[in-house]
Amino acid sequence: MSEGKTPARTTGAGPLAGVRVVELAGIGPGPFAAMLLADLGADVVRVDRPGGPGLGIDPAHDVTNRNKRSVVVDLKAPDGPARVLDLAERADVLIEGYRPGVAERLGVGPGDCHARNPRLVYGRMTGWGQEGPLAQRAGHDIGYIALTGTLGMIGAPDEPPAVPANLLGDYAGGSLYLVVGILAALHHARASGTGQVVDAAIVDGTAHLSSMIHGMLAAGGWQDRRGANLLDGGCPFYGTYETADGRYMAVGALEPRFYAEFMRLLGIPDLAPARDDMSRWPELREAVAARFKSRTRDEWTVVFDGSDACTAPVLSLREAPHHPHLAARGTFTDHGGITQPAPAPRFSATPTAVRTGPARPGGDTEAVTRDWDLPRRPDPAPNTATNPQ
After folding, report:
1. Catalytic residue, candidates 140, 187, 208, 322
2. Which of 161, 173, 213, 281 lies in disulfide reach of 205, CB 3.0 to 4.6 Å?
3. Catalytic one among 92, 170, 232, 364?
4. Nearest C-alpha neighbor of 129 from the set 172, 173, 163, 166
5. In this predicted structure, what is the pLDDT of residue 58?
6. What pLDDT score does 53 carry?
7. Does the active-site annotation cover 276?
C-alpha cells in the first residue's frame, strides 16, 4: 500500500450497502455520525480540506474516519463548490457541520445541492442549531450540555458538576440524533422522491435524552439537584465505591431481589432493611463504602462474579477490551494495529465490520472519481486553506 492510500477493504457490507454519503470534513459529532453510517455499510466519501481539520489527530489513528474514503477539495477555490455539487448530485446523503449560513456562502448549501439532487438528505450538525439567539456563537460540548440542564445533574452534590468527556453532548445528543434523522429522512426520500434538511442540534438531542427525568421531575419523583436521586449517585445502592487498591466498583442493585443478593455477597445482610428508610441511607452508604475498602477491586470482582447483584468493576479504556464478556462478544476489535470498538449494533442478515482503517486525506480521489462516475476536473493547486467559519 503506497503512502496516503486508504487501506484495502475487507468483508462486512452492512445494511446500508449502496447508500452514498458525502461528508464535508469537520471535527467531533459530524465525523462520528458519518463513521456510524460507514460502519453500517454506506459508501462515505469524506471531503477533506487541503489544510486539514482545525483540530484533530494523526489521520492514521483517527478511528472516526474508518470505513470511509477521502478526497481533497478546496471549497474556496473557483471550482471547489462544483466538485462538491458533483458528489451531492450522485449521493443519497450529505453531512456538514459548519456554522449556520457558511455552507450557503460557500455555494454548497441545501438550495445549491437540492437544485442538483432533489432527493438528497442534507444533514446539518451544530451545537446550537440553525436558528435561535446563540446560533452564530462558537461553542463546544460542555457548553451545550450546560444549558440543557444535563451537565448540572452529574456529580457529587458538594463538588462541581462532573464532565462526561464529550460523550453526552457531541456523540449522544449530537451524532446519534443526526443519524436517526438522516435514516428517517432517507426513508421518506425513497418513498416520496423528496429530500429534506435535517437540523440536528446538540442542545436539542441532549435535552431529549433527559425526557424521562423531566417526567419524574414533574411527578415529584426527582429533585432538581445533584446526588439526591435514585439514578444520580444519591442512592447508596446505585453508585461507585473505592476499593482497597484505589480502584472502583460500580453498584446498580435497584430491584429488591438484586439488592438482597448484593448485601449478602458484600457481607452486611443485617443492614439490608436500611434500603427502605432514606433517613438510614447515610449509615448504609458508610457501611457499604467500608466493606468495599476492605478488599481490592479484583477481589470484589471475584466475589460478585456469576451473581445477579448488579455489581461490576470500573475498568479503564485499556482494560475494557480484555474483559471476558466483551472479548467473547467481540465488542472491541483490532484493525491496522489499533484497538477500537467494533461496529454496533449487530445485524443477523447484513453483518457489519471494520472494512478499512482511517481514510487518508485525498487517498481515494481516483477510486471515488471512477466509482461515482464523476466528471474529470484538473487537480486543484495545493494550498493551506483554513476551516470555513
Report:
1. 140
2. 173
3. 170
4. 173
5. 87
6. 65
7. no
